[in-house]
Amino acid sequence: MKLCTHLIVYDDILKNEFSRIAMENPSDIKLTAEIKEALQNSNQALAAAKIQELLEKETNTPLNIAITGECGSGKSTFVNAFRGIDNKDERAAPTGCVETTLEVTGYPHPNYPNVTLWDLPGVGTMKFPADKYLNRVGFEKFDFFIIISATRFTENDVKLALEIQKMKKKFYFVRSKIDNDIRAEERSQREFSGEQTLAQIRENCIQG
User: What is the mean pLDDT of each run of 10 residues along the chain (208 residues)?
Assistant: First the structure.
């Protein structure tokens, strides 16, 4: 059930971004205006044809999604979950307890052939120091970003978000490994509340 819920959320993200990117295209803005005009003139047939044309363009719009964050935050696992693929699948992004993503790697979405998820190396490692990270991974070529963060909202997360905003692009923030934190909290607290722990994590993300 959890995986199914996650996939529904991921599909919603894709639909939102398809619409946003398509509407930034001048030809799509013109199409939208033509749809509005056709509706105002009660020309339902023309409006329907223009709407269909817009939907087909959205379906064919290429979408490059960058998955970024610190090393070990669960970026590759997220890439696989987003695509509905198990970590053991031969099409999966490699995962492990040590640094496994050493170069920018693209993975096509199985249900959306024009969508590519790019698994980026972790920021702030010896191979990818924070001050050289943006240039090495080519931040400018991606349409939008998903920042994965585990345990704490870090300085590197903030730097990534600020740089993305400078480029006038969008990002989503995903807090990973919450199940590990809840288990650790349960072992260490005399009076444990799963709901309270989740609320604290959520509030920490909002403050960050």
Answer: 44 64 64 73 71 68 85 83 81 66 82 85 77 79 86 80 85 80 78 80 78
Asked whether the CA dihedral 168, 67, 11, 176 is positive or negative, the reply is negative
SS3 content of the chain, % helix, strand, coil (to 5): 50, 15, 30
C-alpha–C-alpha distance, residues 131 and 177, integer Å: 26
> Look-up: residue for tokens 């799963």?
194
Distance in angstroms (rounded) separating the CA atoms of residues 179 and 194: 10
pTM beyond 0.85? no
Q: What is the pLDDT of residue 15?
A: 63
| Cα–Cα distance for residue pair 28/34, rounded to 1 Å | 10
DSSP codes of every residue in 41-100: TT-HHHHHHHHHHHHHHHHT--EEEEEEEBTTSSHHHHHHHHTT--TTSTTSPP--SS--
Q: Which residues pair with 171 in a beta bridge?
A: 145
